[in-house]
Amino acid sequence: MNTENTFNEENLPSEKQTEVKPETLELTEEINHNLHSAGKWSQFLAILGFIGVGFLVLSGITMSVVMAFLPNNTADFFPFPMFLVGFLYIIFAGVYFLPVLYLYRFSSSIKQAVALKKQDQLSSAFNNLRAHYKTFGIIMIVFMCLYPILIIGMVLFGFFSGFGGAEGIPM
Fold it and tell me: What is the pLDDT of residues 130-147, one digit of tens each?
């Protein structure tokens, strides 16, 4: 009897043996209920976010117009024109709009995915949720980097404004 390993088809792995089934997640009725509820609450928060963005834009426009027509008595105290504060509000509104939009898209997609049991809608919903959190994360990183710079600037501004007249206003 030949004990050498010879090449034959029995020794080769078959397609069924190499096929690896991906593990799937099961969306139970409780999970579907929780996702639908999360969709409702995220839609509520997104609508409030859109309202907040609208108020920021209106405040920015109002401040820019009002500050442009006020007499420039504060020109010695602030090193920049005051109407630019309104533009800063509008910039904040623009930055805040994007994560609110992603949250709204998540809420719409997750509710449709649960109601219609569509996998592509579920994937789209979680893609928008990922984009929402990623955008907020980037915004937080930027603000965390800006805070030390702003604090140092305020301390230096306060320190050097003390070298002016008796009231602390530069001469």
Answer: 999 999 999 999 999 999
Count Cβ atoms within 10 A of the Cβ of residue 53 and give its class: 0-12 exposed, 13-18 middle, 19 or more buried: buried
Length of the chain: 171
Q: What is the signed CA dihedral for 54, 44, 126, 116, rounded to 10 degrees?
A: -120
Classified as helix, coil or strand, 7 is coil
Q: Which helix (H) or strand (E) holds 147?
A: helix 119-161
Tokens of 96: 């805040």
| CA atoms of 90 and 71, how far apart (whole Å) | 23
63-73 tens-digit pLDDT: 888 877 776 65
- Longest Cα separation, the chain: 111
37-50 exposure pattern, b = at least 16 Cβ within 10 A, e = fewer? ebbeebbeebeebb
Q: What is the DSSP letter of 73?
A: T
Q: What pLDDT sits at residue 103?
A: 97
CB 118 within 8 A of CB 112: yes
Indicate left, alpha or beta for 144 from its phi (over 0: left) and psi (-120 to 50: alpha). alpha
Q: Would you state the pLDDT for residue 84?
A: 81
Residues 6+ apart with CB under 8 A from 68: 83
**Encoded tokens for 117:** 């049991």
